[in-house]
Every structure is written in structure tokens, then in C-alpha cells.
Amino acid sequence: MRGDLLYFIYLKRLRAEEEKILKLRKERMVSREQKRAAVLHEKLQLLRSITKSHALSESSIIVDASKYIQELKDKVERLNQDITTTSPQINSNNTTSSWPQIEVETLEKGFLVNVYSERSCPGLLVAILQVLEDLGLNVLEARVSCTDTFRLEAFGGEDEDAMINAQVVTEAVFQAIKNWSESNEQG
To answer: Are strands 96-97 and 101-107 parallel, antiparallel or unpaired?
Structure first.
């Protein structure tokens, strides 16, 4: 009889332990689901703010987001069309003349000069480097591609006594391109 009583107590404790384990598992599951729901809610609110949606339901927020994405795609397509219609211009000889694009960015100690053209420009690199040298800029690092297109990315530091701004560098590079273009048309 005593053995049966001990066995009964053992089974009762075993069931209590199993119930605790099941309760803990259930709490963890609920906690994970709550975390997932909170993350999803946070992401939907972020999506809602980015798309400037005033919708409250999840499905409406997603619909607004898809409309916003389509608007962005349309805008990119319009911009690409604008670029292709305004890029190359035909001159009187019926040849395409597209001037290189120039970007000059002022850095802490010098400038970053980017020049890009859709066509190869033999001799342009020398003309631009000469102008940078004339301005007192030391080209410290440069990446150049001259095969089918022309691309120059140069980092130049200025001499101690030189006080140059980005506009001066841009105008000088533009003048070098203009001079190079005129000398190519003559030759």
C-alpha cells in the first residue's frame, strides 16, 4: 500500500512537471508570435510612412505601397526617356557630338574630378591633366578608361599657396575640353 501511495505521488509530480513544461512551451510560442506580429506591424508602419499612405488595414497599406512602386517605376521610365531624347545632338556635319559630362567635387584637401563621355576621346586625357597641372593641382590618384567611352576620375590635391574653388576647376576642365574639341575638328 505504501508503494502504491509513493507511485501515485510520483505520477502526480510527473504530471505537474509535464504541465509546467507544456505551459512554458505555450508561453514561448505565444511570445514568438507576439514578437513576429510586432516586427510585422513595425515594418508595415515603416512602409506606410515611406509611401505616405493613410490606410489603416494591412492590405490597404500593401495596395498603397504597390501603387507607389508603380509611380516610381513610371517616373524612372520618364526620366530615362528624357535622358535619351536630350543626350546626343546632331551637328551640321550630321555626326553625333556629345560633350563630356564634368563633375567636380570639393574635398577636404583638394578635388575629385569626374569626366565622362559616351565616345572615345583620344588626346583628351592629356589636355585635362595639363589644365589640372596649370591650376596647381597635383593628381594624386586617377582612374581612366579610354576604349569605347572616355571616363576619368582623378583626385587632386592643391598646392599650399593655391586657393581654388570647384567652379574654377570646372571651368578650366570645360575650357580644356573645348580646346581639345576644336583642335580635333581642325585636324
So the answer is: unpaired
Mean pLDDT of 166-187: 83
Residue whose C-alpha is closest to residue 141's, from 129, 150, 124, 130: 129
For 87-149, where are the alpha helices, taking DSSP H only?
124-134
Task: Give the side-chain half-sphere CA count within 13 A for 68.
Answer: 14
Band of residue 158 on the pLDDT scale cut at 50, 70, 90: low
Query: Residue 75 half-sphere exposure, CB side, CA atoms within 13 Å?
Result: 6
Provide the pLDDT confidence category of residue 142 given band limits of 50, 70 and 90. Answer: confident
Reduced to 3 states (helix: H, G, I; strand: E, B; else coil), residue 74 is helix
CA distance 89 to 177: 17
- Please report, to the nearest 10 degrees, the dihedral formed by the alpha carbons of residues 168, 173, 178, 179 taken in order: 100
Asked if residue 158 lies in contact with residue 80, where contact means CB atoms within 8 angstroms, the answer is no
Model confidence, pTM: 0.45
Rg over alpha carbons for the chain, rounded to the nearest Å, is: 34
Please give the share of the chain, as a percent, with pLDDT higher than 90.
11
